[in-house]
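Below is a filled-in request sheet from our internal design queue. Each sheet records the structural input a requester submitted and the sequence that came back. We keep these sheets so that new team members can see what a complete request looks like end to end.

REQUESTER: design group, bay 2
PRIORITY: normal
MODE: inverse folding
CHAIN LENGTH: 299
BACKBONE (tokenized):
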């Protein structure tokens, strides 16, 4: 069963992007059931509105808000004239993490880390994987977590930028993009990062969105970056454990807890070979379920 001693793994099923310039959306975001919000200072804010958007975030952080949501700030590109002021804001507001757009190299992470030298150790860096160079270097970038960028905690794919640069057309099933998506997942998993699938722009097309969530989950993503509140419920559903997975995890945990199986590493469960690695997976899934249940009841 659920073991409270397992390390705390935050939920990242649904990360909603909220334009920092949109006060109404910022107000609404607090009460939404997404696992996290990405307060966006980059693409959704016009250049002349950046300072007003930063002011909105100062106000947002001064208000009481849900402890259940992870809060990220997406800054402008490190090469832009806005990055320094954005990072100063991040230092002042202490979100859970800062999302760096268009990360292409380890040097980008070094630069981001240097801005945050005086920040609390738990302030995370998340990197957007959304350029051709970024995807090519995904393994090296992820490995920086074990070297010069220990704050690095997650990747978020950005397909709008990646499609623009590579000219891959938006087609059903994301056929030509799948190898690059899998490269990002592989790099993230090799170095213990969370990994989040890209936004889906047609927020009124719920059916295709659900298919993309199913695909993202099958590819190994932890969750999806979202642009609209209507996408939260399906993302939470598809990136959370299904009824069948819960039943299976419980059956595996129950089987290994039987006295006759205590000293066995491999057992026969209804005609299938089950090993202790499956028990670890089952325990992780049940821990995630427990967190989801707790979220429903916590303010
Ligand atoms: C896309 C939108 C501009 C649509 O907004 P709107 O026209 O207001 O839609 P609705 O009328 O359907 O909205 C219904 C209510 O929901 C609120 N709302 C909408 N979106 C959000 C949101 N993101 N967060 C919180 N609340 C939201 C509206 O205010 C309405 O409320 P009410 O007034 O009570 O009825 C809009 O959805 C939007 O701006 N979305 C986010 C855009 C964004 O953040 N873009 C940047 C991230 S995308 C990205 O990162 C791409 C990546 O870099 C890449 O390369 O791929
Ligand atoms: Mg982008």
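RETURNED SEQUENCE:
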């Amino acid at each position: 069963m659920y073991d409270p001693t397992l390390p705390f793994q935050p939920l990242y099923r649904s990360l909603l992007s909220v334009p920092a310039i949109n006060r109404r959306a910022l107000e609404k975001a607090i009460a939404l059931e997404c696992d996290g919000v990405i307060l966006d200072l980059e693409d959704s804010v016009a250049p002349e509105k950046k300072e007003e958007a930063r002011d909105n975030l100062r106000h947002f952080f001064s208000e009481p808000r849900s402890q259940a949501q992870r809060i990220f700030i997406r800054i402008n590109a490190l090469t832009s004239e806005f990055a320094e002021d954005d990072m100063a804001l991040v230092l002042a507001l202490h979100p859970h993490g800062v999302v760096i757009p268009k990360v292409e190299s380890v040097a980008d992470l070094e630069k981001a880390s240097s801005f945050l030298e005086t920040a609390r150790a738990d302030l995370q860096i998340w990197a957007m994987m959304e350029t051709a160079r970024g995807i090519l270097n995904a393994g090296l970038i992820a490995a920086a977590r074990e070297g010069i960028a220990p704050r690095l905690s997650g990747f978020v794919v950005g397909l709008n930028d990646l499609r623009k640069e590579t000219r891959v057309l938006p087609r059903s099933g994301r056929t030509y993009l799948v190898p690059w998506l899998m490269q990002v997942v592989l790099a993230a998993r090799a170095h213990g990062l969370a990994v989040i699938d890209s936004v889906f722009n047609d927020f009124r097309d719920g059916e295709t969105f659900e298919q993309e969530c199913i695909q993202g989950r099958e590819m190994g993503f932890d969750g999806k970056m979202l642009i609209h509140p209507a996408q939260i419920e399906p993302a939470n559903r598809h990136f959370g454990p299904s009824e069948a997975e819960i039943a299976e995890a419980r059956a595996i945990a129950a089987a290994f807890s039987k006295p006759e199986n205590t000293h066995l590493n491999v057992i026969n469960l209804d005609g299938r070979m089950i090993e202790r690695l499956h028990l670890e997976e089952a325990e992780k899934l049940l821990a995630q379920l427990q967190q989801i249940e707790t979220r429903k009841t916590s303010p």
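SHEET NOTES:
- The first strand starts at residue 14 and ends at 19.
- Residues 16-19, 24-25, 28-29, 40, 43-44, 130, 158-161, 198-199, 227-229 surround LIB3CWND (ligand 1) (CB under 6 Å).
FILED BY: M.R.
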